[in-house]
Amino acid sequence: MLAVFALVEGRVRVEVAVLFKVSVKAVDNWWAKWQAGGVPQPTLASTGDTYRQLNWSPHCSLG
Length: 63
Prior knowledge:
single chain
């Protein structure tokens, strides 16, 4: 769930919605489901890999 990773990293809901071309309501639903334990918690590293932040520009267009 890359959208949840983005929220965990501190992205705002509107920015995540624009990046994934979904509604803010969809982002809210994903976040709520993750918080409730319905979606696996994102991990910061997988076996053999190092953690890398999502590489999105901080100047992403929101409109």
